Each structure stands twice: as structure tokens, then as C-alpha cells.
TrEMBL record:
PROSITE patterns: GLYCOSYL_HYDROL_F2_2 (PS00608). Residues 35-211 form the Glycosyl hydrolases family 2 sugar binding domain. Keywords: Glycosidase, Hydrolase, Signal. This is Beta-glucuronidase. Gene3D superfamilies: Galactose-binding domain-like, Glycosidases, Immunoglobulins. It comes from Pedobacter petrophilus. Its EC number is 3.2.1.31. It is an enzyme of class 3 (hydrolase). Residues 1-22 form the signal peptide. Residues 215-304 form the Glycoside hydrolase family 2 immunoglobulin-like beta-sandwich domain. GO terms for molecular function: beta-glucuronidase activity; carbohydrate binding. Belongs to the glycosyl hydrolase 2 family. Residues 306-605 form the Glycoside hydrolase family 2 catalytic domain. GO terms for biological process: carbohydrate metabolic process; glucuronoside catabolic process.
Length: 609
């Protein structure tokens, strides 16, 4: 008897946790859906001891018998005898989207828990489905609607949503999040990085309305290596057979009619001959429409192929050099995450000013809007997940988390022509455990999307004046992509760089994913004076001479477009919590090295015409 009630209890608990955590991959093209923005001013409470989450015996309130007692109750004092030790109404407000570190001096270095609350009105209609959608929350979110938990999510840069159909009220609703950006060893990323750990609801929040059997996911892209063969797949949120679906591109007078299969899916490949292909020189996007009897979704999609042949990278079949730069998701002028189209445009325009045709969006998924802008502005993209440095390679839940983040990135951006490379990590130290972790990620990427390249930023090892690239992961990925900091962390003065050569084990296109050195904008000296613009300028000139010895060199993404904040960078004069490797300073001024890169790119553009 006792045993069976335990079993029942266990089943109930499992059911509860599954319901609470039920999370499918994020819905494709959220901007193209019926959405209500929940951005704006949110009230917040800083909660370093998680007082609003645990009782004094450290039991979570939301798992207690009553399921109440936490800040998610959003209580206010009803009479003067009542004891309530928090009050959202009287608490300060911050902007969402927005990291908390750049919105309050008190929170600049804060890592921990903050509660955020937004009230909103809704008019739910019968027969419709409703989701709250978060484009990104860093790092762990516990989400409550009208006092009840609707889900939890980990991972600071990818979108997620929860079904709130049964919880949404007509009239006023209260959405509350506990956001925790504490760094932890088993998470992705781990405790050790070189960027600011911006916490909060850093990207858009929406309430989205859907009909029954809505189109949750779709992909329309060219098949690898074939400039005329389109592949179209589509999936309904539930397995409904026989639904009519029309795919059309009015500009091409292309119209295709389908019926969903038993799983609610469509998979098709068809030839189309007069496509104007997407490229940085001509970033052509087509208006694409996908219609069911209940939905009408518009998107803008470009078509191009990307592949590797021997040591060449072929874009639409044409030999290409990736004239790139690395970028963090941070506005140096405001010292916070990029949060508007203007912020993103500024960064990508700076890259274009340097004559880039390519950007490395390091070290984690950037905003979907950033990728859409790259589509529109004509920049190829290396998109990455934060599998960075020392990950817990043997922990299965760490792997599951990395895989989920990679999946969410690919699902979100697989229709963007600009994305040509999925990067599965950066500078991960050699070991067997790491190799199998990374191989599995590479396989995941290829299974989800076989139309792009898979890469990772590897490391070189030195033997005398030779830089050796023999990381076994090089066998698995499509590029020989690696970081090297000759002339900064090792290797003497910039003038000495020319003595180094490379020993690269793999016959694949070489793409240098990072190199560079720091310069404090406006600080001048001779070319041997560390931190001066002249040192950085000489380092870049000599790097380009050194790298030109690699016959298979097919691209570079110097580190980095703009100075960025990092708690690792502590020199009080030159750094002050800023990594100064930017080609553009914290005040937006182009440093001397910027023009060295531009010159090199002008030459490469002519060479690869
Ligand atoms: C690296 C890392 C990058 C750092 C950079 C540096 O190798 O990949 O995240 O910021 O070096 O400045 O040291």
C-alpha cells in the first residue's frame, strides 16, 4: 500500500516536472507570427540569497505542498499587520531586453539572482494556442505566469518558449522570472571565459498566438553543391496528416502545393533554374510565403551553396576568400549587450567599412536579428556555441546542454543564407573525452543541417619556430580553423613574426579564426611598445606576411572588431576591465591596425575576383 502510493506520488512528480519543463525546439521565425511584445520596463528585485525561491530550510517554495511563498506570488500587503518582505510595485525598473549589468552601477559586476516582473493584458481566444517566447535569458530562467511555474531553461543565448494556453487569463496577467547568471563548472559556458557575464533578459520577449496544427518549423535552402536544387521541409507542431500547405515565392512565380504526411511533415526537393543566388556582393533575398488553411507566414530567404573542395572554399561554386573579423555581442559605446537594430547595424557596418565579406560571431549564438541583418547587408557568418575552453567533458548533462544549444542555434538560423559555418567550440584542450564530445557535436550539426560547413576554433602547438596543427578534431571538421597569438602572448616582437612557419596536417582550407594583440586607442609609441596602436599595427602587418606563407589560406577573422569588456583584463592603465584587442576602440575610433586589415582585404578581393 505504502509502496503503491509512493509509486503514484513518483509518477505525479515526474509528470509534474515533465509538464513544467516540457520544451520543444523554439518556433521558427517568431517575428513572422502573431506576436505581442512583452519588452519594456520590468520591475526587478535583486536576490543574492535566493530568498524569494527557498524557504529558511532551503526548500524551494515552488515545490512545497502549497506551491506558494515565493516572490512569484507577487503579493502586496493587504492590511497593516501583514508581513511581506518584498514588493515588486515599489521596486525599481529595468529595460527588457537588456542586461542588468549595464543598467545599474550596483549590478555592474553582479553574478547571481534577480527577479523580474512584467504585467500585461491579454485577450486569449478559444481554440488558439499561446506561448511566451524568450529570444535569450542569461543564464538560467525559472518562469512563472500568474503565480504558477511554467518552466525552466538553461543556456544564455538561445531562444525558448513555454505553452501558456491553460494559464493565460483574459485581462491582466503577471509574468515573473527568476534569472540566475551564476557561473558554474558543469555549464555551457563554464566558469572561465574572457567576456562579461551579462545577466538578465537580454533579448526580446513575446506572447505568441497560434492556431491548431501550427507550422512550428520549416527549412528552404539549396542542397549542398547544387545551385538549382532546392530542399523544402516543414513540420506542424503536432502530427496532423493531410493538411494543405502552399509554398510560394511570388517574385519567381514559384508555387508548390503539398499535403502533410502522417507525422505532420513535408519533405521535398525540386529543381529551380532561374534563382538569383545570394552572395556578399549581391545579397539577394526572396519573399517566401508558407500557407496553411490557418496560417500565412512570410520570410525573407536567400539561396546560396557553400562547400569545400580540396583546399578551396566554394561559394556558389566560386573560389572564395573569407575576409572576416570576430565580433562579440556587445556595444562598446554603451558597454552592454547589443539590444537594438541600430546597435547591430553599427557593428556590421564597421565590418563592411573594413571591406569584410564575413564575420565570426563569437563565442555564442548572437541575436537572430544580427543574422538577419547579415543576410541583408551581405556578410557571411560563422555561428558558434559557447563550448569554450575547459568544459566538463565527461558529464552527460553538460553534453546534453551543449547539444541542445547547438540544436537551438541551428533550428533558429538554418534559413539564413549568411550562415555558412556552424562552429562547435573554441580552444578546447586535447583529450579523448573532449574528442568524443566534439565529434558528437559535429555529427549533431551535420544531422540537423548538411548544407553548411562545420568547424571549431582549434589551437596550434609550437616546436621551435614551427606552429603545428595536428589536433585530431581537424580530421572531423571541414576547415583547418585555428587561433594563434604570435607576437602577443608569445613569439617576441612583431618584427620577429616573419621567422615562424606552419606545419598543418590536413589538406583542407585554412581559416585563421583568431590572431591579434591589444592597443589602447589613442596611446602611441614605437612598434615595440606594448599597448600602443603602433605595436598593434606592426603586429598585423607582420601577421599577414607570416600567414601568407600558408598556401591553403582561405580566410581570417582577426580578434576582434571592437574593444570589449572582460573581468580578466585588469591592468589599471591599459585595460581597466577591457580587452583591448579591438580594431576599433571603446569610443568607436578606428585604430591604426584597422587600416592594415582593410588594405589586406582590398588585395584579397582583387585576387579572388
Ligand atoms: C582567445 C580566445 C578569446 C580571447 C582572446 C584573447 O584565444 O578565444 O576569447 O578573448 O584569445 O584576447 O586572449
Amino acid at each position: 500500500m505504502l509502496r503503491s502510493s509512493f509509486t503514484v506520488l513518483f509518477i505525479c512528480f515526474s509528470l509534474f516536472t515533465t509538464l513544467v519543463n516540457a520544451q520543444v525546439n523554439a518556433i521558427q521565425n517568431i517575428q513572422g507570427r502573431k506576436i505581442q511584445s512583452l519588452n519594456g520596463k520590468w520591475n526587478y528585485i535583486v536576490d543574492p540569497y535566493e530568498n524569494g525561491y527557498y524557504d529558511y530550510r532551503h526548500e524551494p517554495f515552488d515545490q512545497s505542498k502549497s506551491g506558494t511563498g515565493g516572490y512569484f506570488d507577487d503579493r502586496v500587503q493587504k492590511d497593516k499587520t501583514e508581513l511581506i518582505e518584498y514588493n515588486f510595485d515599489l521596486s525599481p525598473q529595468m529595460n527588457v531586453p537588456g542586461d542588468w549589468n549595464s543598467q545599474s552601477a550596483q549590478l555592474s559586476l553582479y553574478e547571481g539572482n534577480v527577479w523580474l516582473r512584467r504585467k500585461f493584458d491579454a485577450r486569449p481566444e478559444k481554440g488558439k494556442k499561446y506561448y511566451v517566447y524568450f529570444a535569450a535569458v542569461n543564464y538560467e530562467a525559472n518562469v512563472y505566469l500568474n503565480g504558477k511555474k511554467i518552466g525552466t531553461h538553461k543556456g544564455g543565448f538561445t531562444p525558448f518558449q513555454f505553452d501558456v494556453t491553460s494559464r493565460l487569463k483574459t485581462g491582466e496577467n503577471t509574468l515573473i522570472l527568476k534569472v540566475d547568471n551564476t557561473r558554474k563548472p558543469d555549464e555551457i559556458p563554464t566558469v572561465n571565459t574572457d567576456w562579461w557575464n551579462y545577466g538578465g533578459i537580454t533579448r526580446d520577449v513575446y506572447l505568441a498566438e497560434f492556431p491548431d496544427h501550427f507550422i512550428s518549423d520549416y527549412k528552404l535552402q539549396l542542397v549542398k553543391g547544387n545551385n538549382n536544387l532546392l530542399s523544402f521541409s516543414m513540420k506542424l507542431a503536432d502530427a496532423t496528416a493531410g493538411q494543405d500547405i502552399t509554398l510560394s515565392i511570388p517574385e519567381l512565380k514559384l508555387e508548390k502545393k503539398y499535403k502533410t504526411d502522417a507525422e505532420g511533415k513535408i519533405n521535398d526537393e525540386f529543381t529551380w533554374n532561374n534563382l538569383a543566388l545570394w552572395s556578399p556582393e549581391s545579397p539577394k533575398l526572396y519573399g517566401v510565403n508558407i500557407k496553411s488553411d490557418k496560417e500565412d507566414i512570410n520570410d525573407k530567404i536567400g539561396f546560396r551553396t557553400i562547400q569545400v573542395k580540396g583546399d578551396s572554399i566554394l561559394l556558389n561554386g566560386k573560389n572564395t576568400f573569407l575576409r572576416g573579423v570576430s565580433i562579440h555581442d556587445e556595444n562598446p559605446l554603451l558597454a552592454g549587450r547589443l539590444r537594438s537594430e541600430g546597435d547591430m547595424r553599427m557593428m556590421l557596418q564597421w565590418a563592411k567599412d573594413m571591406n569584410c565579406n564575413y564575420v565570426r560571431l563569437a563565442h555564442y549564438p548572437h541575436n537572430e536579428e544580427m543574422i538577419r541583418l547579415a543576410d541583408e547587408m551581405g556578410l557571411m557568418v560563422w555561428a558558434e556555441v559557447p563550448v569554450y575552453w575547459t568544459i566538463s567533458w565527461t558529464n552527460p548533462s553538460t553534453y546534453a546542454n551543449a547539444k541542445q544549444q547547438l540544436t537551438d542555434l541551428i533550428v533558429r538560423d538554418k534559413n539564413r543564407a549568411s550562415v555558412v559555418i556552424w562552429s562547435i567550440g573554441n580552444e578546447t584542450p586535447l583529450s579523448d573525452a573532449r574528442l568524443s564530445f566534439m565529434k558528437n557535436l559535429a555529427e549533431t550539426a551535420r544531422t540537423l543541417d548538411d548544407s553548411r560547413l562545420v568547424a571549431a576554433a582549434l589551437e596550434v602547438h609550437r616546436d621551435g619556430n614551427t606552429m603545428i596543427l595536428n589536433d585530431p578534431l581537424g580530421e572531423v571538421i571541414d576547415l583547418v580553423s585555428f587561433n594563434e597569438y604570435a607576437g602577443w602572448y608569445w613569439g617576441g616582437t612583431p618584427a620577429e613574426l616573419v621567422k615562424y612557419s606552419f606545419d598543418i596536417k590536413y589538406n583542407k582550407p585554412v581559416v585563421i579564426s583568431e590572431f591579434g594583440g591589444d592597443a589602447l586607442g589613442g596611446f602611441h609609441g614605437d612598434e615595440n611598445t606594448r599597448w600602443s596602436e603602433e605595436y598593434q599595427e606592426a603586429l598585423y602587418k607582420n601577421q599577414f606576411s607570416m600567414l601568407s606563407k600558408i598556401s591553403a589560406l582561405r580566410g581570417v577573422t582577426p580578434w576582434i572588431l571592437a574593444d570589449f569588456r572582460s573581468p580578466r583584463r585588469q591592468h589599471p592603465v591599459y585595460q581597466n576591465f577591457w580587452n583591448r584587442k579591438g580594431l576599433i576602440s571603446e569610443t568607436g575610433k578606428k585604430k591604426k591596425a584597422f587600416f592594415v586589415v582593410k588594405d589586406f582585404y582590398d588585395q584579397m578581393q582583387t585576387k579572388y575576383k
